[in-house]
Specification:
- With 287 residues, the protein is mainly α.
- The chain folds into 2 domains: 49 residues, no CATH class; 214 residues, Orthogonal Bundle (MetI-like fold).
- It has 14 helices and no strands.
- α3 packs across α14.
- The longest helix is centred in the N-terminal third of the chain and has 34 residues.
- The protein is flat and about 75 Å long.
Length: 287
């Protein structure tokens, strides 16, 4: 009598398992990417068609037009909004990087009593919601007579605890021997920051600079509170002009949003390598 043994289950080779897992992960990432890009594709689509296309769902190719982009600059002073946003974002980002890098250098490389306690106190400001500080900051702006001016749009955004924390973490990963060697050559703390630390911090500065520029460019609430005229409004506030009480010019609103998106997109494309390096290296080591 012969005894039959059950066949062993078919085993998939380890190499094929790795390929299958990789395909599944890539498929999920592709699906997530499609969901993330969908709003931007809709925005671009609506901006290229007349106003009635969205209501009638008539998106025929022969109806594509760039007239919406032209009207965006004619209906409202969109050029002025663009200039204000660019000026505020560039000045705010530059000043914030300078101030934060100096503060981060002090917290990371200098030795003084109460350094860690002061840094923790400084870091604790991140826990305070911006909306809580909105009225006190506004009252200060009114007392300084900065209302509806570039000072109100720029100065409060120069100081950032997050930027300081980010750069401090990066600076702590740099060898302390560099500072000691520079001091032996007679370099002051400011010279060490300027000639030693900053040249080595390009990836971190680029990464946090993108964050700062993006936050300033997209800020809506603060410019809305401290500006009162079209001459001082920025793009996020200006885009609200296309939204009426009973109707919205979706084609013009989407065209303005596409134009507003371009600077941030271009900056990220040009500096994405530095951005990735800065994020990866900002958490290195510490003392």
């Amino acid at each position: 009598m012969t005894v039959t043994t059950p066949e062993a289950p078919l085993e998939i080779p380890a190499k094929q398992q790795g390929i299958i897992k990789s395909l599944l992960v890539q498929s999920l990432l592709l699906l997530g990417g499609i969901f993330m890009l969908a709003p931007f594709l809709v925005m671009l689509l609506v901006s290229l068609f007349p106003a009635d296309a969205l209501l009638t769902r008539n998106f025929a190719l022969e109806r594509i037009t760039l007239q919406n982009y032209v009207e965006t600059f004619q209906v409202v002073p969109f050029g002025r909004y663009y200039f204000n946003s660019a000026l505020v974002a560039i000045v705010t980002t530059t000043a914030q990087l300078v101030v934060a890098s100096l503060a981060a250098f002090a917290f990371a490389r200098l030795r003084f009593r109460g350094r860690e306690s002061l840094f923790l106190l400084y870091l604790a400001t991140l826990m305070i919601p911006f909306i809580v500080l909105l009225i006190p900051n506004f009252l200060i702006i009114r007392q300084l007579k900065w209302f509806n001016s570039y000072w109100a749009l720029i100065v409060p955004s120069i100081f950032s605890a997050f930027t300081t924390f980010f750069l401090r973490q990066y600076y702590r990963g740099l060898p302390i021997d560099l500072d000691e060697a520079a001091r032996l050559d007679g370099a002051s703390s400011f010279r060490i920051w300027h000639q030693v630390i900053l040249p080595l911090s390009t990836p971190a500065l680029a990464a946090i600079g993108i964050f700062a520029f993006n936050n300033s460019w997209n800020d809506f609430l603060w410019p809305l509170v401290v500006t009162a005229t079209d001459e001082m409004r920025t793009i996020p506030v200006g885009l609200a002009a296309f939204q009426g009480q009973f109707s919205t010019d979706w084609n013009l609103l989407m065209a303005g949003a596409v134009i507003a998106l371009l600077p941030v997109l271009i900056i990220y494309i040009l500096s994405q390598n530095w951005f990735i390096r800065g994020i990866a290296l900002s958490g290195m080591g510490g003392r």
